Structure formats: structure tokens, C-alpha cells
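Could someone model fe (ii) ion with this protein?
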Amino acid sequence: MTTPIHFNATWLEQITKNPATPFKSKLGSIPYTANIVIPHYRDKVRSYFKDQIDSSLEQECKNINSPMPFEHFGVSISFESPIEVHLYDENSMLNKGLSEIIAKVGPIILKNTYFSSAIRDDGHRNRFPQFQFHVDRSPMQDTRYSLYTRNPFCPEQKHPRTASTIFTTNSAAYLQAIKQGLFTKDKDKRAPTSNLLFEKEPLETILGNVILEQRWDEPEGVGEIAMIDNATVLHASFYRDAAQSGYRIGVRYLAGL
Ligand SMILES: [Fe+2]
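Reply:
Sure, complex below.
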């Protein structure tokens, strides 16, 4: 028997009340700590792109028909001991509560978690190009969520990975494309879907600020899962060790709300 997960919008409210404070609770008998990964993300986007924003961030978002960046970006849930999780049903429908959370804060990251053996190797494996921010799915596709896995039972993936997966929002990617001269406000009234972005920015100014870094660096034998909605969030790789692109990460696509 697997404990049903209790993560949903109501649960998230408890965390966003004090977004810089870790939230401790239990799933069944397993204690966990949840954190907002980048508190006050929207303010950080406003500040980072102040030279690219003409009147307001709200207006820029309207121009590209995109929602405002999330007030806070990403939630990470770290379990004290390994736990098997059921996050979607047999029709690849993501759990409703998780969809609610993704709609409010973007990426969800689960640490010390794994899937049942029946679905552990579903999907495919991939390695994303460095700083090539892209979407896996278009908003028109039913399965618009991407879920990435590090399988703790796999001889390769049980080790920490040398490359990170990095996430940013439509609006931040658009403003960065303007900053780099790749997009112009007259011609490009949309968020990027595959562009080399941020690669020349100082890392310390972007990571944990306008970009969320999922490092896949939990110790050997610890499983990790990350999920996003491709309609609002883009992803790419960042090779922490410049010579290594890391092993291929598990990828599956899910439908939802
Ligand atoms: Fe991808």
C-alpha cells in the first residue's frame, strides 16, 4: 500500500505564508521538509530585467500572451527516508493536487523518492544541451507536463549527476531574448521555445534568482523527481563540470488539469 499524497493548493498555502521558512510535516510515517526554492521570484524578475521592461512586467506579459511570472518559484520536498510515490494514474494524468501546485509555483522537486518497479523505466532518457532553453511539449498537446527522474535503482542514475537541469519562466526567457538581441518587441510577441539564453550572464546573478537549478546531487542511491508544465516553464542543462554533460535523465510526459 502506498500512502496517498496530500500535496495540493491548500497545502502550498501553508508554505507560501512564510516562503523563506522550511515547512516540516509527514507523508504517512515519513517526515519531510518542504521549501520554496526561489522566494519572491516575481520581484527578482522585475529587478533583473529592469532595463528591458518598458512600462511594467504585467504589460510585457500581456504583449507575449503569457501569465505573470510566479510570485515564488519552485517547491522542493525532501523526505527523510526513501518513499515510493504514485504521482499519476494509468492514463498518465498527473495527480490533481500536484497540477494545482505547478499552476501556482511552477516546478515541483521531490527528493528521496522513487516509482514502483512497474513504471520505473517508463518514458525515455535524454540529455539537454547547455543553456538551450526549450519546451518539450506545446500547450496544444494533451500531455503538456514533463516529469524528469533520477532512478535510485539504476546503476548509472544512482550516482549524483555532474550536470544540472535549469528552469526559467516564459517571461524571464522572453526578456532575456530581448536583452541578447535575439527577439525584438515589435516582431516577437511570444515566449521563446528553443533559444540559447543566459549563457553569458554571470552564474551567481542568475542561479537562484531568475533561474532555478535542479542539481541532481543528492548522495548515491537517492532518487529524485522534477516536474514542470511546458506551458509556463522552459528548461535546459547546465554542465557544472564543463567537460561533462552528465548521464541521460529519465523523461516522461503527463496530462493534467
Ligand atoms: Fe527537454
